[in-house]
Specification:
heterodimer, A: 172 residues, seven-stranded mixed β-sheet, 7 strands, 41% helix, globular, B: 59 residues, mainly alpha, 73% helix
Chain lengths: 172, 59
Amino acid sequence: MTDFKALLEALTGAGVELILVGGLAGIAHGSARLTQDIDIVYARSDENLEKVARALAQHHPYLRGAPPGLPFKWDAATLRHGLNFTLETTLGDIDILGEITGGGGYEDLLAHTIELQLFNRPVLCLDLDTLIKTKRAAGRPKDLEAIAELEALRDSRAEDSSPTSLEETAAG
Amino acid sequence: MAQSDWKDPVIEAYKRDVDLTLLRKNLRLTPEERILAAMELQKLAEEVRRAGREARRGL
């Protein structure tokens, strides 16, 4: 099981600049689909790489699915030399992404986010339209149902301006 | 038809099966509550998987 709360607290507590994307972003928007991991896009500044490395170090990140014993060193230099990392940690699985298909990197996505209050901290989350756009761009057959659900959420929001829409509950 | 009006027929077909009652229920929660509920669901799924594994071992 992935402890979404603890992972988010570890990252935001360290001041990591991140944007929540993927399945958990969908859940934040109201999706009923289950996800097993957290996907974040992180800023690639030197300062932020240090923060990401520090935030997760105590949770022993390792390459998910890789055989044990590989010479994988978790630090800012490793982050700098790579881009997207699929990791397992003692808190569960997390994908640390420098870029996503159809969306680009942190700076590109920043204008397409909403701010959520999660566990007493502000967290940027990809807005619904951009989340749909990036899932479409990924072109994975497994995302078709997810896209349909996200579009249904968008449709219902357009039809219903009741106080149940995400924007009006985003403050938590 | 304007580009913005275009709807992907594949997605529209999938949309017919989306359970709107679940979405409406979720939309009554805050984003934080939605994430906590997803964690509870994950725990349940894990427990069901464990029970399934044990049952298969007992067969």
